Amino acid sequence: MAVAEDLEVASYLKGQPKKLLIGGKWTDAADGKTFETLDPASGEVLARVAEAGAEDVDRAVAAARRSFEAGTWRELPPAERAKALWKIGDMLEERATEFAQLETLDNGMPINDALLFHVPLAAATFRYYAGWVTKLDGATQQVSLPGKYLSYTLREPVGVVGQIIPWNFPLLMAAWKLAPALACGNSVVLKPSEETPLSALLLAELIQQAEVPDGVVNVLPGRGETAGARLASHPDVDKVAFTGSTEVGKLVARASADSNLKRVSLELGGKSPNIVFADANLERAVSGAFFGIFFNQGQVCSAGSRLFVQEKVYDQALDELLKTVKDTRIGPGIDPVTQMGPLVSRTQMERVLGYITLGSKEGARMLAGGGRPEGLEAGNFVMPTVFADVDGKMRIAREEIFGPVVSAIPFSDEDDLVAKANSTIYGLVAGVWTGDVARAHRVAHALRAGTVYVNCYHIVDPVTPWGGYKQSGWGRELGPHALDLYTELKNVIVDIA
Fold first, then answer.
1. What is the DSSP letter of 222?
2. CATH 3.40.605.10 domain range(s) in the chain
3. CA-angle at 13, arms to 221 and 29, nearest 5°
4. I want to staple 238 with a disulfide (CB 3.0 to 4.6 A). Which of 86, 117, 159, 483 is the partner?
5. Is the dihedral of CA 277, 283, 284, 285 positive or negative?
6. Where in the chain is the domain with CATH 3.40.309.10?
7. What digits encode the pLDDT tens for the residues 330-361?
8. Which residue out of 301, 320, 400, 477 is catalytically annotated?
């Protein structure tokens, strides 16, 4: 391991291999398997990690079930649960540098993004849901039948929740899943990606320090086809929450239905339109277009990968975008001057490069990028790539690339734009850049997307709902809406005559 000793995270990485958390105990995998997690900037090994399999999932689900049935968490006074969640947020903030370094080394994201966005937002998510714990109230209903009845509702936890999170925002996705589930009193089995397991394991240590009872949170790094598949199909899991590709989301939904018809929430893929009208503030719009697609190396489900620009300003907008792309500093995420780091893995890099080759074959005009930067061959780096004059029928305009590749598409008028923007199987996010307030609202209403940004992009806060239309998923995370994912609504009717 070549992690510099002056990094705060170095001491955490010394303990090897990293183990599974099951029932409050750190343990090896049942079959003894481990895997390596790599620094995507260098290819060097960061840590060896226990690889959870089906037997480990069974053990973790059993531990979660015991904790749930015993009521060690769900029956705590709400204020006590709230205090624990708030403490987790505080500890995340106190150890922000360590978590940021770990995210950067394991995922490749620029260190400044991790410090300024990912870790603070993860802490804020735990604090936000800490505030909800004491407010999970029911309501009374007036019954019109003859007689006298008291009818009221209760919000109760679903039970044992399986959560499967992706590699693009490891810590933040763990917070988005764990915080509302714990706020509602559930017990959880969390499976982080085998590509980026480390921040979830360190977060688990904080959860233990916050005195969340044993078995309430279990963390199992493992592969999707083994640990993930077993969690989705497990007959004693009451609900599964998944973030990842639409293709795998369908497998999760199918497995859940075939086992015990467990409840499912899915946050899946996107091919989001980012739309620039001629009356927009072009400087802001181009900056937003750059951020929309190249943030986190384009490895974002909501990336503005289809850039629609009105014909009148099409050439000018692309010229300005190319200037920004040209000045982008690419390098290891741990370097504070880096603006774009490596992709998460060799496999992902090759996938993205394959789409770039395909775009050229399909007839799109490549204006920038198109390959790997010189001098960084040891890492999984791909240059920010801009295709112009893309046709909506091209695969680079239809399929989620999940990398730093943008397809620029001209449009003539509002009606032309809406039809093109909605011509996708996805519906996660859209962006609209315009100086016309009425147009902003008209287009926002016409777009089939779960979130529409107007004169901004990638604005995410724990209070705002997150999820998509069509094949971008089921349900909404964040805000009070996530509470619906992790609670059952019980109606009680009492004859009081």
1. B
2. 10-268+473-491
3. 30
4. 159
5. positive
6. 273-461
7. 999 999 999 999 999 999 999 999 999 999 99
8. 301
Which residue in 51, 98, 194, 267 is the catalytic one?
267
User: From CA 160, how far away is CA 179, in angstroms rounded?
Assistant: 14
- The letter for the amino acid at 152 is Y
The phi, psi pair for 97, rounded to 5°, reads -65, -40
pLDDT in tens, 165-197: 999 999 999 999 999 999 999 999 999 999 999
- Whether 267 is a known active-site residue: answer yes
> What's the pLDDT at 15?
81
Domain 10-268+473-491 sits in CATH 3.40.605.10: yes
Q: Residue 2's pLDDT is what? A: 58
Q: What are the angstrom distances between the C-alpha of 17 and each of 32, 57, 98? A: 11, 19, 19
Confirm if 236 and 158 have CB atoms less than 8 A apart: no
Report CA torsion sign: 287, 289, 292, 297: negative
Structure tokens at 380: 């999984």
What's the burial of 222, exposed, middle or buried (CB within 10 Å: 0-12/13-18/19+)? buried
**Which CATH architecture fits 273-461?**
3-Layer(aba) Sandwich (3.40)
* Residue carrying structure tokens 């009374």: 140
β 306-310/365-368 pair status: unpaired
The DSSP string of 3-31 is --TTSTTHHHHHS-SB-EEETTEEE--TT
The pLDDT of residue 5 is: 76
Burial 391-425 (b: 16+ CB within 10 A, else e): eeebebbbbbbbbbbbbbbbbeebeebbebbbebe
CA atoms within 13 A on the CB side of 80: 10
